[in-house]
Amino acid sequence: MAVDLNACRQAAEWFRQCLGPLPAGCALSPRVEGVERVGSWEAERIRYRAEEEEWVSALLVKPRGVARPPVVIAHHGHGIGNEDSLFGKLWPKARYPFEPEAGLTRFGVAVLAPDARCHGERLPDAPDPVAEPQRWREHFDAAWQWLARRCLIDGACLQALLVHDVKCAIDYLQTRDDLDASRLGMYGYSMGGTTCWSTAVVEPRIKVVAVGGCLLNYDTALRVRRDASWHAWVPGVRRGASREQLLASLAPRPLLAIHGEQDFPRQGVQPILDAAAEAYAQRGCPDHFRPVFLPGDHIAAACEPRLIEEAGQWFAKHL
Questions:
Q1: Domain that holds residue 204
Q2: Are the CB atoms for 51 and 24 separated by under 8 Å?
Q3: Whole-model pTM above 0.85?
């Protein structure tokens, strides 16, 4: 398919405008609050500020025996926190048998996993999600929906807050002498994947991108009513940008796109992959784009061991 690279750049700028105003910057005031051991990993529990009254909880795992490793920011999916996604099926309170994102460390990268707003430790007064799943879901849904409403009256959107928090995570990583934040990748699945590519569109410090379970063009999403969470919808964006153009705008930065074969309808996914392939070919780096389909639906693909294997090999090759 024909892709106009200049139009893709304009679409990325339009997307930046549609996100609305990001929160004002503030002092990060980072602190390490302890160490969590799960399986073979030791994770630093970290806090830093995204706004004056908004603290981010994050976990950091590092590969053994690697001096100043490159870093991957791993963003979790909708309704689960960083503990579930980082440690996956090894986490005592895990609700799904996900492959642990901490497994990326075996490819020589450090992994920073922040909690999104209303997730993990950033969901105050929440019932226990394992003991009281229905009460937890009601509590989470209410918090998420009211945060989205707040964004609307502030002239922004939920995706803008998620993007802002990732930018703060990058700022934090740049304060760490033991990490090489100039070699920075980002990984995400589902909501995390959408936040990953959305941030990469507006944040050039992200050098390598790996996304899963998140690429569906707007027309198909509206028709089949998928991609329903508030984070996926940016006001006004379709007037000046398509998801095909936005993903193509990432070229020539390496982009890995993973999907389940029975996940989103292929007619809404394939045009995005085709546009990206054409953009990378025009840039003279077709090997910087790789589409991968895993067996199963949205959850099955997230639990497939090859998911982390593919992402880890991608970061090892390009970071």
A1: 5-318
A2: yes
A3: yes
